[in-house]
Amino acid sequence: MSGEAAGGQTLSEIAQGPRSEAVVETAEAGAVKVVEKQAQRRIFKIIVIGDSNVGKTCLTYRFCLGKFPDKTEATIGVDFREKSVQVDTEHLKLQLWDTAGQERFRKSMVQHYYRNVHAVVFVYDMTKMSSFENMPAWIEECDRHNLNKNIPRILVGNKCDVMERIAVNTNLAQKFADSHNMPLFETSAKDDGRANHVDAIFMTVAHKLKNSKPMMPPHLADFVPGDTQRRDFVNLRGSPRHRGLQSASRGEEEKSDCPC
Ligand SMILES: Nc1nc2c(ncn2[C@@H]2O[C@H](COP(=O)(O)OP(=O)(O)OP(=O)(O)O)[C@@H](O)[C@H]2O)c(=O)[nH]1
Ligand SMILES: [Mg+2]
């Protein structure tokens, strides 16, 4: 007996027909599930703040891209970096807001930094006392923008690799951290041997966030006042539309093309 049946289908094809539809359905259902799962992934906005030149960009770059950047320039407005992490069984998306430390590059964006923030990472430079002494001012700025006092806050001393120039004593920093109920990390974005340490900072934040209540995910529309201004102040790293738009040399405070 030939295997050919009506409609040119073989018996085995007919036999397989419904099964292959089911396979398609299952595949589609699977795809839908994946999409749903991604849609459900909680997104957390973490702002990284501190004086200019303390290493905020390098720390976020190290965490998200796994290396120390070849070259950095003063951040204008804000740079975004995202990383998905797994905490227990849940995948979370961390949206890092690498803010500008220079007043002239941050003043127009400040109100947007502090909208719907889920956690704050305060960074100082261990080789520069003034960056540590300015920490209360950064905390005050958070308070002025009514940041919820219960969101996770972390204190990070960066550049511990420059051992001969350490200016901020660990005990002093620890006392300050304790008095503000923050964990303290001393680390280096530059030292490859401490890459895990940098990961630990953001994973500590992720663990704290995982246990917090679900919050409204931040959305680009929340902070972009208009497309023109977005080009001026917002830098979405990796997005072809925004790539390379923002950079500024340090020590050029009086540059006339300042967008602020
Ligand atoms: N030795 C050492 N240098 C670092 C480290 N992290 C950053 N740097 C250097 O410090 C300088 C400033 O780093 P950035 O990450 O651009 O500083 P920032 O805090 O983002 O500065 P703004 O964008 O102006 O607010 C750069 O020259 C970096 O190479 C570190 O861990 N160790
Ligand atoms: Mg920067």
Automatic annotation (TrEMBL):
Reaction(s) this enzyme catalyzes, per UniProt: GTP + H2O = GDP + phosphate + H(+)
Broad class of enzyme this protein falls into: hydrolase
Descriptive protein name: small monomeric GTPase
Cofactor: Mg(2+)
A single Gene Ontology CC term: Golgi apparatus
Keywords, sorted A to Z: GTP-binding, Hydrolase, Lipoprotein, Membrane, Methylation, Nucleotide-binding, Prenylation
Record membrane topology: Lipid-anchor
Localization, UniProt: Endomembrane system
Species this protein is from: Littorina saxatilis
Biased composition (Basic and acidic residues): 250-260
Family note: Belongs to the small GTPase superfamily. Rab family.
